[in-house]
């Protein structure tokens, strides 16, 4: 069992303005070893920007970041390079290389960044594809894969780098509804295996079932933070609960047969 009291990633006071507008306002959070925290909230609340600031794809205007208790100094190229290798990122739209087969998409960073031989990198890529259930698709190009399979390749690619933390930015939002489950299943298995993860999502039933904590983000600030049981308890009166209830109302209209009181279909509470 991972030591869940050990902070792996900590951010403090992250702020960011873009186009003259404040997008993130002093956001702080800690991810402990082996925990899955889920970022939810209305569209435009700053979830993607926060994940990109944490991964330093966007440089925050203010704030500090620690990985395994070591502060990351953005101005030091070596720090930045090493940090990016240890913090994996999964994007909504997969970001695969179209001209590379699945196995090569997974292996490429091992060869180019880590300097592994083609044989070593391919062996590792095959092991990671196996882990996400795609060993039989290793020779296919992205255009020959479904959206769910492409996202699983991108997860395998991130895992191949042995990240300490995975950041997932709405990994199922670009998928047809019938493909969402296979990607969530992979993430569920990673959580069960002790991977430390921060995931922005609108998949509320998944968040409720699996997240250690829900972080509710609105207007660039984390306005609520707590276990799903606490934030979504009947009568909790939280902003998280009213947000979920609204999603549920929409889903009820779209799926009138959904049994009340049970965890709803994907995307609902
Ligand atoms: N490069 C940019 N320049 C100006 N504004 C930006 C830029 N990138 C994002 N924004 C604005 O920042 C706000 C937060 O966007 P962000 O994508 O982080 O929200 P989100 O919570 O992830 O939304 P969604 O759930 O729709 O993905 C939005 O108002 C968006 O228009």
From TrEMBL:
Sequence similarity: Belongs to the ABC transporter superfamily.
Domain ABC transporter span(s) in chain numbering: 9-244
Record-linked InterPro entries: AAA+_ATPase, ABC_ATPase_HisP-typ, ABC_transporter-like_ATP-bd, ABC_transporter-like_CS, MetN_ABC_transporter-like, P-loop_NTPase
Listed name of the protein: Phosphonate-transporting ATPase
Keyword GTP-binding on entry: no
Compartments where found: Cell membrane
Keywords assigned: Amino-acid transport, ATP-binding, Cell membrane, Membrane, Nucleotide-binding, Transport
Gene3D superfamilies (UniProt xref): P-loop containing nucleotide triphosphate hydrolases
PROSITE patterns associated with the record: ABC_TRANSPORTER_1, ABC_TRANSPORTER_2
Membrane topology: Peripheral membrane protein
Pfam families reported for this sequence: ABC_tran
Main location: membrane
Domain of life: Bacteria
GO molecular function: ABC-type amino acid transporter activity; ATP binding; ATP hydrolysis activity
GO cellular component, one term: plasma membrane
Lineage of source species: Bacteria, Pseudomonadati, Thermodesulfobacteriota, Desulfovibrionia, Desulfovibrionales
